Amino acid sequence: MSAVIECTALRKEYRRLRGGVTIAVESLDLAVTPGGVFGFLGPNGSGKTTTIRCLLGLIRSSRGSTRLLGASPDAVEKVMRRVGSIVETPIFFPTFSGRRNLELLGRIYGIGRKPVREVLERVGLGGREDDLVKTYSLGMKQRLGIAAALLKDPELLILDEPANGLDPAGIKEVRELLRSLGAEGRTVFLSSHLLNEVQHVCDQVAIISRGKLITQGPVSEVLAAGRAAALSVRLADPDAGATVLQAAGFEVVRTEGGLRVIIDPAESARVTEALARKKLYVSELRPEAIDLETVFLELTAEQEEPAL
Amino acid sequence: MTLLDVELRRALARRLVRFTALLALLGIVVAAIIVFFSHSDVPPGPAPTFGEDCVEVAPGEIQCFGGFQAVSDERFHLADLKGVFGGMIVPLVILAWLLGASLVGGEWRAGTMTTLLTWEPRRVRVMLAKVAAAVIVGMSFFVVFQVVLGFALLPTAIFRGTTEGFDLADTARFVLRGMLLAGVGGMIGFALGSLGRNTTMAMTAGFIYLAVLEGGLLGGFFPGIRRWLIVGNSIVLMTGGSVDITGRGQVGAGVMLLTYGLGAVAIATAVFRARDVT
Q1: Quick check: A148 and A117 in contact, CB under 8 A?
Q2: ipTM for the complex shown
Q3: Closest chain B residue by Cα to residue A101
Q4: CATH number of A5-225: 3.40.640.10, 3.40.50.300, 3.40.50.740, 3.20.20.70?
Q5: What is the pLDDT of residue A306?
Q6: Where are the domains of chain B?
Q7: A chain contacts of residue B5, beta-carbon cutoff 8 Å
Q8: Portion 201-220 of A in contact with B at CB < 8 A
Q9: Quick one: which of A25, A93, A21 has its CA closest to A59?
Q10: Looking only at Cα atoms, what is the longest distance across chain B?
Q11: Burial class (CB in 10 A: 0-12, 13-18, 19+), A41
Q12: What are phi and psi of A21, to 5 degrees?
């Protein structure tokens, strides 16, 4: 399956006025396959937006190459009709209404008024579409940006921090929207630092830090690779339980009020069996939740190094 | 053409354009009222007696041995319209320059260029559509302003003056030459606004170049270079007969200015094509 987004050894550097260079992206290899939601994670200044700008042909890479739906940055106009995007905070003409802004953009591809109305409804701006953009809140501007990205009915959506400025209800709506877009067979490339959102929405993720790719793969694999799987065990006598389990060959850590057993949760039966043999019965046994935030912080912390 | 249509709609919806148009309209109305009431329909009084000491050197102007003696004529002459239009050329060309610079500078300042380029990534097309919109708006503004001003002064000429001696064709040619100048002003303003990604920079650069460099240093220290300067060629384009300024006629001056305008746009386009949009 050919990738809809490809970066090969991508490097982008900016020359500083006082000499030297700032490396925004370094040797980035990335491949996004069609369909589903792909999370592109990284702390602020990690190179996410720079990568997106390279993909969209807004900036030129210093080295390496990018391909968007198979097109190089020089030929990106051939595929732009099929790509909807938001780069950072989407900006529209403040003295035009939201509807007017979209109608003007839509004219470029001969898109009429009906699709404009539909996308505005879809992002929850129905009823406010004729208000001037300058009266919109940040969240409403963000919704308008998403509407603009959807207006081309694109097969690939590149969304840079689409939940910026949204309230919790708005974030939930965007999450559901992204899920539905992914389910429709579109590819959604979602750049974000809201790790919880990414974990709930994305099928695959890539994590970058300081311009370098740290890991990429299905969310479950990235989570598993980030930290050893473990079980949280509670029983009446934790000390005795720890002794029994260690004697049985398990790696055990004593925690407040229980035990942490380093083992794949699928093998939890082995733990209960070892304890039951010694007449120790568990009162609680659950897989330890590993969230993307923990993995992300662990992985990106490893990249901490002096500024380039 | 679609992109041009989009850019024209955006340009016409800009606050600066609307505000300036409103201000201009208000100015015309006020000027027309003042001109109407400051003129009289009374024909000029009897001309001074022609004697051996007086001679008529121009219509209504008698030169006597003691100097000039004007015949009192309080009427508004429509034939003077060309002069009125001439007085409006500099402000209108500066306005075209400002509109051109603002059209692109404002877009860079607001950040809407990024949004547009994610829809139409062909930068040369984007640039050409924007510059065409800027030039069309600047030139239209020039013509509409002059025409409206002309019509606003017409009642004064009819009821409190005279239309005698008015040469419509000559005045129209004058306005068209001014329109070309406004177009060139719009192009250069746009090009500077695009290069600096800023309206203020475009206006400052224009002022420094025209007032300081052309007006002072270049023209003053290197008289031979005058024939290549914008101001000299603009004067020749508008007034015609001053061939001695540049050594070329109106057509040559017009071509020279148009070349400068197109050259500035070409440079701005090449830079826009090569530079990152961050």
Answers
A1: no
A2: 0.79
A3: B10
A4: 3.40.50.300
A5: 45
A6: 2-40+75-274, 44-74
A7: 107
A8: none
A9: A25
A10: 81
A11: buried
A12: -130, 155
Query: Tell me: the pLDDT tens digits for A135-154?
Result: 998 888 989 999 999 999 99
β-bridge mates for residue A84, sequence order: A157
Q: Is B170 on the interface with A (CB under 8 A)?
A: no
**What φ, ψ does residue A280 adopt, rounded to 5°?**
-110, 125
Residues of chain A with CATH 3.40.50.300: 5-225
Location of each CATH 3.30.70.260 domain in chain A: 228-289
Q: Hey, is the C-beta of B121 within 8 angstroms of any chain A C-beta? A: yes
Cross-chain Cβ contact B121/A148 below 8 Å: no
Which runs of consecutive H residues, i.e. helices, occur in chain B? 2-12, 15-37, 81-110, 112-117, 123-159, 168-196, 199-207, 219-221, 230-239, 243-246, 250-274
Closest CA to B165 of B242, B55, B75: B75
Q: Pick from B112, B121, B276: which is nearest to A60 by CB?
A: B276
Q: How many CB atoms lie within 10 A of CB B46?
A: 8
Cβ atoms of A280 and A241 within 8 Å: the answer is: yes
Name the amino acid, one letter, at B25. L
Instruction: Report the pLDDT averaged over residues A181-207.
Output: 87
Q: Distances from the Cα of A13 to the Cαs of A62, B156, B241, B276, in angstroms?
A: 6, 67, 56, 12
Length of chain B: 278
Instruction: Look at A77 and B3 and tell me if their CB atoms are within 8 Å.
Output: no
Handedness of CA B72, B77, B79, B81 (dihedral sign): positive
Structure tokens at B37: 């009431």
Helix (H) or strand (E) holding B227: none
> First CA to last CA across chain B, in angstroms?
27
| Chain A contact present for B203, CB below 8 A | no
Tokens of B50: 């022609």
Model pLDDT, residue A84: 94
Residue to substitute from A49, A53, A156, interface B, most B β-carbons within 10 A: A53
How crowded is residue B181: how many other Cβ atoms within 10 Å of its Cβ? 28
What's the CA gap between A305 and B152, in Å, rounded?
73
- CA–CA separation, A134 vs A129, rounded Å? 12
d(CA A165, CA A121): 19
The beta-carbon neighbor of B10 closest among A56, A57, A104 is: A104
Domain A228-289: which CATH number of 3.30.70.260, 3.40.50.300, 3.40.50.1370, 3.30.450.150: 3.30.70.260
- CA nearest B87: which of B140, B153, B21, B13? B153
Nearest residue in chain B measured CA to CA from A78: B121
Cβ–Cβ under 8 Å, residues A25 and A52: no
User: pLDDT tens, B116-164?
Assistant: 999 999 999 999 999 999 999 999 999 999 999 999 999 998 888 888 8
pLDDT tens digits, residue range A96-113? 899 999 999 999 999 999
Is it the case that residue B42 has pLDDT exceeding 90?
Answer: no
Query: Residue B254: its pLDDT value, please?
Result: 93
Which range has the top average pLDDT, A279-283, B65-69, B156-160, B258-262? B258-262
